[in-house]
Amino acid sequence: MSFAGLFAASDSSQGSGDMKTVDAMFKQIMLAVQQSHHDVRELRQECAELRMANAALERQVREGLQYNMYNSRNGTPGFMTPAPPSPQLRPKLSPFLVHSIPAITTSPPEAVYYKPSPLGDNSLTAFPFGNRDIPGFYVVIPAGGAGTRLWPLSREGHPKFLLDVTLKGRSLIQATWDRLIPLTSPARTTIVAGPAHVKSIRDQLPDLIPNNIFCEPGPKDSMAAIGLAAAILALRDPDAVIGSFAADHMISGDEAFLSAVAEAVEVAKKDYLVTIGIAPSHPSTGFGYIRLGDKLGMKEAPNARLVSSFKEKPDARTAAQYIGTGAYRWNAGMFVTKASVLLDLLNEYKPDLADGLRTIAAAWDNEAEREAVLAEVWPGLEKIPIDNAVAEPAAAEGRVAVVPATFGWDDVGDFSSLADLLPAEANQPRILGDSHLVLTEQVAGGIVVPGSGRLIACLGVDDLVIVDMPDTLLVTTRARSQEVKRLVKKARDAGWKQLL
């Protein structure tokens, strides 16, 4: 063989060897990548297990704290402002309390891990992982009112939505935030509140973005509050779907709640004004009712129906008749709709109010201009609930839908309903605060709030409401607890405004 032939054979052999080396290296790389994917999957699984373990531990700690609150004088009574979710911030007393409470340190909320509301009943089972976010969905939380039927526990400067009235370690507005954040984000969660409550809300919700709290100069009822948020959000995102949920309501059944809201969003995308109807547990005379109409037949929202009509608070006999038909739901005041649709309805039924809100929204991002426009326009806006302004007339035209829901709901409207939310031994009064400050003998039912720090002793009285605060004492019965607001009016007329 010639030298050329030898060199050719040598080159061919070397090329073949290089190819084999490249193939081997490629196989090794692929094996390494596969092993890496396997390791990542294992890490994810370990993280998931750790999250579950942490959730279980958190619940055990929470239950332990709750037990201590009921059985120790060192607990945090429900009439005190609970700790915000930040280790840098400390719990603060309500402005009308004088004794101190221990500091509580809590962990900041995680960005992606769903932490159910502590006022719900699915703290471990409801969507522990996964993304529940609904793109384009904005939450509006109207935080108004003084909760006069819970006076003197609730005050104008420190209303019930800022209070931990169930001893779960979170105020009602904090629980509302916790409950809704899986569906949205802090960037799409807004609150409408009065100037007296803005600072307290920011203290309790440190994750609230500053330009997402809309301060209304004075109370104008729900239509102006929700309409203001809708007008501002419509400018920020013309396709925004908004959901309005009161800051001071109790929900049990987080999974059913999230599912109902998600279904309502799908209906709202079809240009309906959507409300969520609560299955009534008894013939209440304190709530409004929704009469169910025909099914909408929407694949994305199989439970949705048209609203036949809205009914005002009925008397006891009418309420019992409503329950008997099975065609009625409680009206919880939850509304989901496109911001643009709500403004169009408002423009149709209340054009002056719509014009005023659009004028304010147009100036909102310029602080100096905003204050001037608010001062000029806001006082002249009509004071009217959203039900009367748009929901009722729109329902008559077949433009309002309802998603019947199965979760538990209560508006914590008076001391009687609050008593039902607190634990107690059989036939014993409920105690909101330090149980060592309450002595009873032959006493059944009722609720006692030992807020002054002094001993309360009860003998042979049933179903009483006793609220003992440092500056005020209220004594009534559960049966008449709805009438406490009449006392508030009398106290105002008698010159006791500083106690309100």
TrEMBL record:
Which InterPro entries would you find in this protein's record? GMPP_N, ManC/GMP-like_b-helix, Mannose-6P_isomerase_type2, NTP_transferase_dom, Nucleotide-diphossugar_trans
Q: Which residues form the Nucleotidyl transferase domain?
A: 140-423
Q: Keyword set for this entry? A: Coiled coil
GO biological process terms, alphabetically, are: GDP-mannose biosynthetic process
Under the heading CDD domains, the entry gives:
GDP-M1P_Guanylyltransferase (cd02509)
Which GO MF term does the entry hold, naming one? mannose-1-phosphate guanylyltransferase (GTP) activity
Question: Which residues are in the MannoseP isomerase/GMP-like beta-helix domain?
Answer: 446-490
Q: Which SUPFAM superfamilies match?
A: Guanosine diphospho-D-mannose pyrophosphorylase/mannose-6-phosphate isomerase linker domain, Nucleotide-diphospho-sugar transferases
Q: Does the keyword Coiled coil apply?
A: yes
Coiled-coil segments on the chain, per record: 33-60
Does Manganese show up as a keyword for this record?
Answer: no
Q: Which PANTHER family match?
A: MANNOSE-1-PHOSPHATE GUANYLYLTRANSFERASE (PTHR46390:SF1)
Name of protein: Mannose-1-phosphate guanylyltransferase
User: Which organism's genome codes for this protein?
Assistant: Agrocybe pediades
